[in-house]
Model the fold of this input.
Amino acid sequence: TAIFCYNTTMPRIQNDCINTIEIKKSKFITYLHRTQDEQEAKDFLKAIKKEHPNANHHCTAMIIGNIMRSNDDGEPSQTAGHPMLDVLMHNDMQDILAVVVRYFGGIKLGTGGLVRAYSSSVSEALKAATLTTVTTLQEYQIHFSYDLIGKVDHYFRTQNIEVIEQQYEEDVVYHFLIQEDISKDLMELTNGKIQIQYIQDIETECVI
Done:
């Protein structure tokens, strides 16, 4: 059995990711960084600049909560940061900073070429990254008699509901995780011969 992960939040990257592409001898190195703090994002950018002091540009785009920012860092206006941000927005990304470090290769790309290059840099990095969403599940505990085990197990199996703990004492106790309340189904299934108790909400991060 497994928990189905519904995309209840915008996707985030699971881990930081680096991806490099080369276009007409210019090298574009994309860093994707997961962050929930704008100051921490600025500190990450400082570290990248320190790592690449001789690069021509360090262009950025970020989405953190309601904050959306981009910076062309010396490239012609709207040709770098904004296209990068467009890619993040198009993919519904959240809590992310994208930094594209460019080493100029001597051949000018033109306005359209720059837009395509910076867009492609972030798109390719996102394809290489592992994305996750956070799903909120409810934990429940149920008590029922041994003669109902067959019915209850069959229901859980057909509904793909994970039982995370089982106890067999005077009666049977199951703990399970679910996204929506199934109390009504269980009461109907057992003719009301079941005790159902909500325990807590659990946030789980699922790879998509």
